[in-house]
Predict the structure.
Amino acid sequence: MSKSINVGEKIKIIRETKNITREQLSERSGLNLDQIISIEENTNLPSLAPLIKIARVMGVRLGTFLDDNDELGPVVTRKADKTESISFSNNASESRKHMDYYSLSKAKSGRHIEPFLIDIIASDAAFTVSSHEGEEFIYVLEGMIEINYGKDIYVLEPGDSIYYDSIVAHHVHAYNNDAAKILAVVYTPL
């Protein structure tokens, strides 16, 4: 992993620009104040679910936290451009780095979907399911993944895909503790 985008700093800047206190953000998002503080101070790498809740409260798209630019036309992302990653966790310190996300659209302004290449790191750490508004599409490029979705478990291999409603509790991780690579597209309504 090269350098990571400082999501917490961007959240803090946007929150302050909109004159929203940490306490107000906590109350409106349903996240506890300690979680807001740890996200803004970059001591806790959040899962997508809290980021989506924060984005909705502040009236911005999820992509605003990842890297927003002003390009209105098409955006081409070259393989060599895959240098900045963002890591998410499910608020458990042992799973802080189980995925590295590489945005494929960070230069596109006004986007409604978030496409990512994701390296899923082999880990036998316990995981916590999460849920958020929206939909997700995953296509397996390398390795095998396991998806816990509600009460069901799906194992996917290269060439397989899955499309699901993100409101159902879910977790994506490497199958059999082997690394994998996926293409994921996340849609979250504003």
Remarks:
- The chain has two domains: 7-67, 79-187.
